[in-house]
């Protein structure tokens, strides 16, 4: 299992409110995280970094997850715990009131991958069946598209495109969408913030399916595209590639 995580401040903002990483536990199972913070004076980076750091810490204590049920249960409880931590931290620190973060998380094992998400950070899966987005944005424009009120083309330029319907840490109780998928040799996952997907189309992201080479090059190429097209937002992505190449497994902070 190989992974690569990369984040970039973009070309407009003066600090990075995205966070995340790719982490392994003692059993060799992998956790990938992308979080996109929001709210308050520099509180977005507090929310996203707290969420990623707490997930990393919790992951170090995980024993082998051998079934989807175990994986989904762990994610459900981890998300609820971290949501509570963020919510109460914001209530006790005036400068952080209203802060929150999107989150997309992938547990990757030799047999399956379990995905949890809140907000509009996304996960894509590339496998023998093709390339597809496997999360659904918790956003106003996505609900308008789902209900037929606007088209996908109109959604791309909608004035309220960035309005989220829910985010981690903004309410006392919140539920993530959690699903498990089969994960097999040569399958690939892409987790990313909207700083990437607002600038790089799915057809371009679909290179994930056929890419051969260094994943650091793949990630940097996508970040360069987003920056070349304005780079108004922070840009973050994580790639996990299911490969059992001996001696080359690992997670790279690219």
TrEMBL record:
Residues 2-242 form the PPM-type phosphatase domain. Coiled coil: none annotated. It holds the Pfam family PP2C_2. Gene3D superfamilies: PPM-type phosphatase domain. InterPro entries: PP2C (IPR015655), PPM-type-like_dom_sf (IPR036457), PPM-type_phosphatase-like_dom (IPR001932). This is Stp1/IreP family PP2C-type Ser/Thr phosphatase. The lineage of its organism: Bacteria, Bacillati, Bacillota, Bacilli, Bacillales.
């Amino acid at each position: 299992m190989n992974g690569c995580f990369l984040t970039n401040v973009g070309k407009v903002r003066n600090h990075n409110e995205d966070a995340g990483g790719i982490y392994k536990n003692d059993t060799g199972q992998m956790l990938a995280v992308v979080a996109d913070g929001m709210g308050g004076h520099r509180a977005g980076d507090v929310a996203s970094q707290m969420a990623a750091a707490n997930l990393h810490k919790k992951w170090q204590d995980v024993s082998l997850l051998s079934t989807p049920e175990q994986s989904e249960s762990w994610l459900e409880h981890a998300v609820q715990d971290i949501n509570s931590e963020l919510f109460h931290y914001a209530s006790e620190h005036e400068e952080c009131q209203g802060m929150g973060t999107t989150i997309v998380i992938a547990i990757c094992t030799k047999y399956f991958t379990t995905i949890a998400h809140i907000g509009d950070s996304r996960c894509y899966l590339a496998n023998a069946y093709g390339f597809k987005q496997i999360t659904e944005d918790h956003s106003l424009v996505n609900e308008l598209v789902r209900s037929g009120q606007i088209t996908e083309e109109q959604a791309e330029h909608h004035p309220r495109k960035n309005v989220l319907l829910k985010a981690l840490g903004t309410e006392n109780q919140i539920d993530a969408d959690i699903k498990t998928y089969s994960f097999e040799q040569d399958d690939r996952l892409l987790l990313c913030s909207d700083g990437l997907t607002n600038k790089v189309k799915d057809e371009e992201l679909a290179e994930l399916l056929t890419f051969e080479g260094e994943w650091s090059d793949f990630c940097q190429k996508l970040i360069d595209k987003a920056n070349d097209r304005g780079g108004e937002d922070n840009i973050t992505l994580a790639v996990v590639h299911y490969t059992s190449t001996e001696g080359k497994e690992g997670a790279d902070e690219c």
